[in-house]
Every structure is written in C-alpha cells, then in structure tokens.
Specification:
The structure is a homodimer.
Chain A (H helix, E strand, L loop, with lengths): L3 E6 L3 E7 L6 E6 L3 H13 L6 E6 L14 E2 L10 E2 H9 L2 E6 H12 L8 E6 L3 E7 L2 E2 L33 H5 L1 H8 L11 H21 L3 E5 L8 H13 L7 E3 L7 H13 L1
Helix pairs in contact in A: 1-2, 3-8, 6-7
Chain lengths: 283, 283
C-alpha cells in the first residue's frame, strides 16, 4: 500500500505526518526556527518512516503555487526574513527524492475538510483560520482557489470605528486590515492580555465577532460560498460561533442568504490531513 | 447557420440582440417598465427576427441561476417590486419556445469579455460594473463564478470615514456598503448633481476612485484575479482608471501583486454579447 507524506508548514510549527487519512495518521510537531534547522528535522522525521511516494505541503505564505512559474514552490514575500524566497518544495523534493504537491496552508486545510471534514459534498466553500494571522482558502466550482497566485483574505479592509475601537491595527503591511484588527496578536496588543486569558464575557469577544462577521459577510458577497468553515486558535473560544452567525445575518440583512458557519470537522488536523490529500491528488 | 438570441436584462433597459458575435449583432434597446409590457416588447423583437435556437439571458438580480432549483430562472429579492419573484427565463422560454440560458448580467458580461474582449486567455478574472448599482461577476479556474447562488460584490462593506465623507450611504439594505457609497445614485445624492455634470477635477472623482479601489483591493485579496475588467456608466469618466490603479497599489502595499485594471474590450456591448455566448454554451 502507498504511503503518503504531508507537511503543514506554519509560522510557529511544522506538522509532519505519514498516513493515508484520518484513521492512520502518524504525525509530529516541529517548532519553526530557521529554514536549515527546521527542514533538517522534517527530513529526519520522514527518514524514520520509510519511503513515501509523495509529500503534500500546505505552507504559510505568501507562496508561489503556480507550477509553470520559475519560483514555484517558494515562500515569497513573507515578513519572516529567514524564510523569504525560500524554495520549500525544492528542499523537500531534493531532500527526500519524492514528488511534491504544494499549496497554501489554508487551501490544504480546505481540501482536508472537503475530503474528510465539514465541506464534504460541496463545490464552493471557504476555509478560514484565525490565529497568529487570518487566512483563507477554499474551493470554487470544485477546484481549489488560486487565481493569479492565491487569495490573502485576511488582509481585506473592513470598517473600523475608531471611537468604538481606538486600537490602530498592527498589520505591518496594512495597519487595520482584518488580520491587523482580529488576529491573536491584535487582541493581545489591544487588551494587554493573551486571548485565552480573556474571560468569555469580556467585551473583547463581541468586538472579535464583529470583525470576523464583517470579513465573512464580505467574502460571502464576493464568492457566494455554500458554507464557511472557520478554525484556528481563536475559534477554540466557541462562544464566537453563535455571535459571528448572528452578526453575519444582520450585516447581510436578507439581501443574500447567510451561509452556514461551522468549525472544522477535522479540528486542528485539517491542515496536515489536507497536505496528505494534496499529495494523493497528484499521484 | 444557427441564430442566437441574447438579452441583457437591466433595471433601466433590456438590450436584445440576434447574432453570433461582435461582427453580426442586430440589437435593440427596450426601456424596463413592468414585466408584462417589457417582455411583450422583447418577444416582439425576437418575433421579427425569425427563429433562434437558443436565447441567453444576463439579468439584473438577485436571481436564481441554479438549474436544479425550483425557482431557477427567477429574479428573486430585487427591490423592484414588480419584478420580484418573476420567472424571467420561463417567460422567454415559453414565449419563444426556445432553450434558455440564464445567469447574472455581470457573469454574462464576464463571459463576453472572455470570448471576445479584455479577458481572453485568462482563467480567473473579475468583471465589475459601476452605474446605477455596483455589481461583479467573473471566472475562477475557467468557470463562471456562482457558488450558492451568485456573488453580490457591490454590497461588501468598506471603510467609510465619516469625517471625510459625511454622506451616510443610500443602499436600502446596507446603508454604506460599496454600492451605497459609490454607485451613481450615491454620487448624485452626495453632490447634488448627476455624475456627468461633475467636472473632471471635482473632488467627487477622487472619493469615487477611493471607494472603487477599496472594493477592488478587497476582491483582489479574496479571489486573486489575474485581471479586473471595470465598466459601467461611471467608468465612462476615464480619469478614474489611473486613479483607481494607483490607489489599489497603495492599499495592497506590495503584499500581493496589483492586478491589471482595464476597461471592457467590448465597451457597453459586453453584457448582450455575453448573453449570446451564454446561449451558445448550452447548445
């Protein structure tokens, strides 16, 4: 039986796995340090698991996922300087002498949810993650969303009422884009505490739900998804789901239908399972 | 040789045509009044042109473009009460006894631009129109963008600085969504003059370019289009194009590439030619 490898390459950790789906996954987490050390530990992991036929990689970005491009497989304009213009797919391909599939972390997670999770049977849906950043991927007409390169949904501008929320936003590129207002570092900077230290009735959650609803409403109007799967560390605060659903409905105001807004069926494993599925798709 | 019919069903006029492409189009404009009178005149036009095999319809909306749906072919929640829940595709199908293809006006225009205009050879692009409303359609991975029903890109929320622009917005559903701030009726309400009465150096155009750039930047981040084709009556004020391009680049700030922003290659005929192409696609 074929063995498949998957890598969820994140800004804080790499999750590596060997297996064929949710039932037989053997995985490890490696903290993200510099490329050389991190890739060395990734290669060690796969070296210990015998030969895999293909490795799928879902990577933090921005990346170049266009196979025809000269920089296919690279992490490109990331603010993480050590990883900028790093040939991640090439390092895995050459280090393990395998075929490599390469996409964004969020498209990988979307594919994982499509195969085994909360997006089965759909043709057009979004997968959003809200944690150290805000990212989005998904499918349109049954194909993963790429376009020119790939979406960067977290960097959309949304209304920001500075009387209600004087925090100026902390995205180094855009200031008060959605990520600059609603990712975990923004919550920490605004309230002076880590998100998990904020009690469930703290006004932080109402404001967080407000920004996430603005983002989801805009994406609903842009893409008409059948469903929106939302995960990431911030959404472990499950009180957000009903608040976000109600606010999206209010914002759309009946003009278009409110999509279902649900947690990932695969929980925190959507990314690495999706990476496995990315690899399976090119065999 | 086959003859094809096309209808661009707009809120102010219906453009009807018979032909097979830009070189042989025979068209007429019919003002949009009530459904009975308007459809009667549409049927008269096609009656005078002999038998067509298929009629493609690109309609104002919201509509139901899902063939499996019980209300396929209907105009649904439009604020135009006489047209609400009107079976437009059915009226044409039964009135002319032809096959009918049905989509949004903006998806039809996108298809027209893909076949004969400014989007040839692309797989992922947007077509936006800015006139009495703001609408958007396009293709992703080579297929027209539908999703659950269809996008309503003009109704996205964008930042609205009420100190700079105290106009509250005039969308009956959302107040200061993009359409409520940037469509022609918003310009008229804000400045007390029709857009074509505003001189090219009036500050109205700078503000208009600002809102359009916010919308296009957000859509670029949501969908990563290779190109954005922007038409409609407001864009006849061609000074907007360079202003919008510069502002989109400033907003994206190098994080992702700025897409090309261009006028429709087919000018005002994109919609009706796209309707012809919609019909050709189902034969």
């Amino acid at each position: 039986m074929s063995k498949f490898g998957g890598i969820e390459a994140g800004g804080t950790k790499f999750v590596c796995a060997v297996g064929s789906g949710p039932g037989d996954l053997d995985s490890v987490e490696i903290p993200t340090t510099g490329p050389e050390e991190t890739i060395g530990r990734v290669l060690d992991f796969f070296g210990r698991h015998g030969r895999v036929e293909v490795v799928g990689i879902g990577s933090f970005g921005p990346i170049d996922p266009v196979p025809e491009s000269a920089t296919f497989g690279y992490i490109t304009s990331t603010p993480k300087l050590a990883w900028r213009n790093f040939d991640l797919a090439g390092a895995i391909r050459e280090g393990l002498r395998v075929k490599v599939a390469f996409d964004t972390d969020v498209n990988a997670a979307a594919l994982g949810e499509f195969r085994w999770g909360a997006a089965q049977g759909l043709h057009t849906f979004l997968y959003l993650t809200v944690g150290t950043g805000v990212g989005g991927g998904g499918m349109v007409n049954g194909g993963l969303l790429h376009g020119h390169r790939h979406p960067e949904m977290g960097h959309m501008r949304v209304p920001h009422d500075r009387e209600r929320d004087p925090f100026p936003g902390n995205c180094p590129y855009h200031g008060d884009c959605l990520e600059g207002l609603a990712a975990a570092p923004a919550m920490e900077a605004r309230w002076g505490r880590l998100p998990h230290e904020l009690p469930a009735d703290h006004p932080a959650w109402e404001l967080e739900a407000h920004y996430l609803a603005l983002g989801i409403a805009n994406l609903t109007l842009a893409l008409s998804p059948q469903r929106v799967v939302v995960g990431g560390g911030i959404l472990r605060h499950e009180q957000l789901y009903p608040m976000v659903r109600a606010k999206v409905a209010t914002l759309l105001n009946g003009y278009v239908a409110t999509p279902e807004i649900v947690p990932p069926g695969l929980g925190g494993r959507a990314g690495v399972l999706g990476a496995i599925a990315l690899g399976q798709a090119i065999l």
